[in-house]
Amino acid sequence: MRIHGRRNVGTRPQMVVAAGLSFLLVLSAGVWASDWGLAARLASSAVVMNQPRLSALPVGMLIQDKAPKGWSHMVLKSVPRLATGDRDSLPASAAKTATMFRMVILADVKPTDVEEQDFVLERLGIGICVPRDPDQDIVVSSDQVDALGLHLSTVERLVLDSAEAEVAEGRIIARTPTFALFRSPATLVVGGKHRRVALYYAFCVERKKGGLKVAVWAMRPENEPQQPPAALVRLEKPPVFECGLDVQAKRVLGTVPYSWSFAMCNLPPGRSLRIPPVLGDMIVTIARRPRKETIGQLEQGLLDLLADAPETVTRATVRQTTPPPGYAADR
Known about the structure:
This protein is an alpha+beta fold. About 20% of the residues lie in helices and about 40% in strands.
């Protein structure tokens, strides 16, 4: 997210939103389309093929710290927090807006038989929510804010519009009945700089048990040359976490801030695991051009890694970000 301000003598800063909420995860995050009609058509085709679909969470849904009724898993809910950088330079109104909107990702794993001995990933759900009270949030959309009885300022409405536009860029790029690989744009702190990246979320179902394992890693944007990622993070409970944001201010003559950008300090919390080179090459292949036979191999390789691989870092450093390959030289 980038916010511009104009400072006039004797007046309060006037804020204008210039870009989306890049710190929102979407999940990061293909069947999410930029218009809801297309999203519905793609979701319908996914159902026919017994493939997991991506759906928007219904506006007004209440979100707490566990999966709501009708869903088997809460994967994550990010609660933005200004953590590092030029946060003290932000006007109070901008600081409030930057931490107001929260991303939630749900998953629904269901049995295919009455004995519950075979499970599939039926759907993923993504939504943007705001605090309703200290114990729960409510899913919102820019076209139904008034119907929910919420009172958002002009800037907050613009930020919500931008957040929704960024979420709409997310895609499921590979899937089987028990697997989905979701790609979504984000902004991440890499080498002290705010970098555009692609976040990849892998959802792997244990077919005979119904368990769900989720991993996330970062790579360069999809339109740039790719190198195999070195590590991923296996998400662990609790699913609700503080998403630390780094703030960078641009200043007139190096003194008066007039523009601010925000970036995730780290990936979501969990266990960091090294990616074997063969699996890393497979990830790059899928990111470029998914093929049915390769998708199945990737699913099995990730499931084995997430289930069996030992922890490779200490808990004290578990949330340190592994830079996407190729960025290290830019530091």
